[in-house]
Amino acid sequence: MTSAVYFCVDGGGTRSRGRLTDADGVTLASAVDGPCNPNTDCARAVASVMALWRRCASDAGHDPEDRAGITLAIGSAGLNVMRSRAAFVAACPPFGRILPINDGYAALIGAGGGKPCGMVAVGTGVTARRLLPDGTNFFRDGWGWTVGDRGGGAWIGVQAFRHALEVKDTVAPPWPLADSLIATICGAETLDDILANPNPERMASLTPFVLAAADEGDPVALGIRNQAVDHLVALARALRLEDADTLYFSGGLAVPLWPFLVERLGRPISEPLADAMTGSYLLASGRAPAEVEISV
């Protein structure tokens, strides 16, 4: 590979995706791997990125050990924390260039093609961002699953797990899902093991069960889903968009929550023009405004 080549990564709390593109953004190879959040597990994040790189390089007929001419542009959960960003860059094997990007900003750029817009990304975590006409951006939430990310997959899982434990403690009425949710999150481990090492991926694994139960009318699951939608609607409104501005919703939970978001927001929402990996490519190639965050 002699011209500019970009290895673009979208790192999430549950899974990561990688795409190798040429200078014009044409896809050469792509791959999927496990979690990538340097703020919760830097070593695991690096391992996921390198697994993605090896698959992409091999599929494109490139020697995986030859990274000198490759730009790694990674938009990942946890890279909003500058200490975690620095730790990831230090731990990652060298590439020709490493461009760490807040995952919300990469998704925002991909969603609107680098044009001013608003976006709410809802997957394992949650963030809302707005790109202003002057090229600056600001965000709402994205504080991480332990204190924020309200309405995301980890948050939904925590609410369900907490309620299941309340049922186990007999301080809440019996709930048909309680035992099955505890069994699902534990797997082959004990409850003590899970409580000793909780993580967003585990919590988010409960979300499909909660949403399915809500669709079937389970009152507890309905309450959790309604709260999640309320949080996401509040975030979208906090972006202070004008009526003419486009609001995008992205992420793995955008689709199942879409009809409830439209109803509650009372304004149109749109699917992203492209994904976060495209956003990373646009940023790394200079086709979109660099990440300049302001407080609003």
TrEMBL record:
One Pfam match, by short name? BcrAD_BadFG
Please give the organism.
Answer: Azospirillum griseum
Membrane-traversing stretches: none
Q: Which InterPro entries does the protein's record reference?
A: ATPase_BadF, ATPase_NBD, Euk-type_GlcNAc_Kinase
Ranges for the ATPase BadF/BadG/BcrA/BcrD type domain? 9-254
Recorded hits in SUPFAM superfamilies, A to Z, give: Actin-like ATPase domain
Which PANTHER family does this entry report, sorted A to Z?
Answer: N-ACETYL-D-GLUCOSAMINE KINASE
Specify the protein name.
ATPase BadF/BadG/BcrA/BcrD type domain-containing protein
Q: Which domain of life is it from?
A: Bacteria
